[in-house]
Amino acid sequence: SQADRYAVFGHPIGHSKSPRIHKLFAEQTGQNLVYTAQEVPADTFKAAADAFFAAGGKGLNCTVPLKELAWNYADSLSEAAAAAKAVNTLALAADGNILGDNTDGIGLLNDLTANLRIELPGAAILILGAGGACRGILAPLLKQKPASLVIANRTPARAQAIADDFKPLFPVEACGYEALPGRSFNLIINATAASLSDELPPLPAGLLAENGTCYDLAYANRPTAFVSWGLANGAAKSVDGLGMLVEQAAEAFYIWRGRRPATAPVIGLLDAERQSADRN
Ligand code: NDP
Q1: Which of 36, 50, 73, 81 is deepest in the core (most CB within 10 A)?
Q2: Is 110 inside a domain boundary?
Q3: What is the CATH number of the domain that holds 219?
Q4: Coiled-coil region(s) at which residues (predicted)?
């Protein structure tokens, strides 16, 4: 029988690891599917998605800058997607409707708890950045009952808008970077796009509590600026978002195929590959 078709849409999409990750998942679980990457600028998203599903496509991942457009495109939304106001996974349902979900938050949570063994209940958490990624990861983090959660952003009003939206769930605090000196956190998550250009928000010394964790949502072949900051500031663990990338893919795979691939071997393989890529 013909293989079911899936794809990731984004712009730029050239370096996406998603086709490789889903190929490894499919091999591991014996599923017959094809997963490709397609360059889709925002202004062509609707036409491209319509064409994909009209041609029999079963599911899409959507990445930068399409997650809000995908949220609008879906016929119905999961609780996670509704809270995030962003969709990274579209799935064709049996009745022909397109379901929108967001697996970024659960992906981060799985990496933090199952892979890295970070204790979230009672933790003081700081998120840097107030874009779509911050919004996407908040609900699953807050459900873990941290002691406190602060969002710091270059534009404090954007952090405040997110804090207001999540007020019914948790008293999230919003601030600018100038309010950080003198405070300390057990877990600092970098959800800014700054790392991608080797930049770092202004972070004071002492911001990371003893035995703390730094987690950069961005990932690269070399340690990101934020991962290096964590190591230089005494982090017990300072890692980038490769684990989250594989975990969010595994959740999408589960939505589409009803099978849970093992993530650890895939994270291990991609991590080994990028280390050898960086040496070459
Ligand atoms: P957005 O563009 O929506 O948000 C960007 C945020 O970064 C804004 O808060 C912006 O601040 C801030 N920012 C950008 N440049 C700087 C800078 N030089 N200094 C300080 N702050 C800056 O991006 P997303 O939320 O979609 O994505 C954020 C990151 O998360 C990206 O690196 C992305 O790759 C990563 N990501 C990783 C995933 C994974 O699976 N590992 C999944 C999803 C995202 P301001 O509001 O002031 O403009």
Answers
A1: 81
A2: no
A3: 3.40.50.720
A4: none
